[in-house]
Design brief:
The structure is a homodimer.
Chain A (H helix, E strand, L loop, with lengths): L1 E5 L5 H10 L3 E4 L8 H5 L3 E2 L3 H5 L4 E4 L4 H8 L5 H4 L5 E4 L5 H12 L4 E4 L2 E2 L1 H7 L2 E6 L2 H14 E8 L3 H29 L4 H8 L7 H11 L9 H18 L4 H15 L10 H6 L5
Parallel strand pairs in A: 1-2, 1-4, 2-3, 4-5, 5-6, 8-9
Antiparallel strand pairs in A: 7-8
Chain lengths: ~290, ~290
């Protein structure tokens, strides 16, 4: 397929590479041309605007940071929507608010263009392996049009419901995942304070009901104190803003999500925003050394 | 081996059965003789006191509820310690406070008898399959003496450290596991309130970084609203008392553990103590219907 791609960050870059590897004809737009250099060398074409990139594409994929970022590249005279033909599909894989996804979908639909919210989980490891979980809000027939693209990037591809539903699932995903990181941090912190070997505790816990990807992968980062980022913690902080807004909007109590949110605030205030979210351990350790 | 067993609850019964199945010569004591009937029919011998049971045994396994329960069957004129020969091993697989385990170990050691704290994770499913994670505090040579017994009950057998360390690991395990249940409950509750299919959300989340045994097994219980107990929630409530006492004793902040503890208090107050801990979902739902 002829496909446009915007958003060459830690996640987007390997996702774009997997699209090229699957034989798709990739067109790029990025504010900073240099960030596209290796993909251009691999055969992608760099364009002068999102609109120019989208023109002639059957689909466009975006993987940017915020809802405002998606709107900035999508709407307006130079945006993706202005370039896409009727019946083409914009697959937004960014993590944005469900309400923003619904607004964008309504705008696209009014112009006869499809819009899917399709946020992902799996981190940079999943992005590189092409094994991301993709959570989709939007119409089944639009998903069918872009299925080859989704299959090049993802392992588990699931339609959750209508527009916005993918973003609701993603908010739930971040809630479950980052809470698991915080629980690991608290458990290992307690073990250390009790004079017990934290590596052995993690190892033992992996044998029982406490098994999680968080404990396996990120727990190991905590044990070996490897806080260099895969996905930067500031992005989880951003996602919790979305999550807690949803809690406000729906009026449901999320007691531990609220607490994890505050720990992420403390993480940001501690200057760990560009490191890995396993830095939640260091937030607990502050003020008592290790 | 000739082995005594006390504690024929939802966990202890299948563990005892696995010891018989592995060819060990099982002796039992229980306050209520009837609870031992099926095991006696399978070849176990019922004894009149913990002391009488322990006499002649190379090892005794206990799987009771509280530290006081362990002391009641272990110490005193009719207790396990009075019956065990020098060099024999008492393996306490109950979940009790690390401090209580250390006290018991000191008392046993002073009489030349071994004591291991060896709490487990894996629930009734792991107990039945003989695949429990066993977290051990105590001496390596004592562990070696009872390894055939541990292998009949457990899949992952790990020495964590000296006496009490197994119980520290277990407190960490409960922290990580029950926090994961609470996170699942909050995520599914938010999804439902957002009008999104909770089964699809759980399914999608299992494909990415949010994967956990809690989401897989207990998340499914929440989706299908199957709140009948495997391990009763009141036992997790008890375990959180131990955990928060350890936090007090070591002076470490456990922000989400503290919040989960309060949700377990609310669960108990709601009358869900004898049901499954996936009932944490129902605690969130109270006051707004479903």
């Amino acid at each position: 397929m002829k496909v446009g791609f915007i958003g060459l960050g830690a996640m987007g870059r390997p996702m774009a590479r997997n699209l090229i590897a699957a034989g798709h004809d990739l067109r790029l737009w990025s504010r900073n041309r240099e960030s596209a250099a290796t993909l251009v060398a691999a055969g992608a074409e760099h364009c002068d605007s999102p609109r120019e990139m989208a023109a002639g594409c059957e689909a466009v994929v975006t993987m940017v940071t915020t809802g405002d970022d998606v709107k900035a590249v999508s709407l307006g005279a130079d945006g993706v929507l202005a370039g896409l033909a009727e019946g083409a599909v914009h697959v937004d894989m960014s993590t944005i608010a469900p309400g923003e996804a619904r607004e964008l979908a309504a705008e696209y639909t009014s112009r006869g263009v499809e819009f899917l919210d399709a946020p992902v989980s799996g981190g940079t490891v999943g992005a590189e392996a092409g094994s991301l979980a993709i959570m989709i809000g939007g119409d089944e027939h639009a998903i069918d049009k872009v299925r080859p693209l989704l299959e090049a990037m993802g392992g588990r591809i699931r339609r959750i419901g209508p527009s916005g539903a993918g973003q609701v699932a993603k908010a739930c995903n971040q809630m479950v995942f980052v809470s698991a990181l915080q629980a690991c941090a608290e458990a290992l912190h307690l073990a250390a304070a009790s004079g017990v070997d934290v590596g052995r505790v993690r190892e033992a816990l992996l044998g029982g009901s406490a098994w999680s990807k968080a404990l396996d992968g990120w727990g190991q980062r905590m044990v070996s104190r490897d806080f260099g980022a895969g996905v930067e913690a500031r992005l989880h902080h951003k996602d919790f803003g979305i999550l807690m807004n949803e809690a406000m909007g729906t009026g449901v109590p999320l007691p531990i999500a609220a607490q994890v949110w505050q720990q992420l605030n403390a993480l940001m205030a501690s200057g760990f925003g560009q490191e890995d979210t396993s830095s939640l351990l260091r937030v607990l350790e502050q003020g008592r050394g290790r």
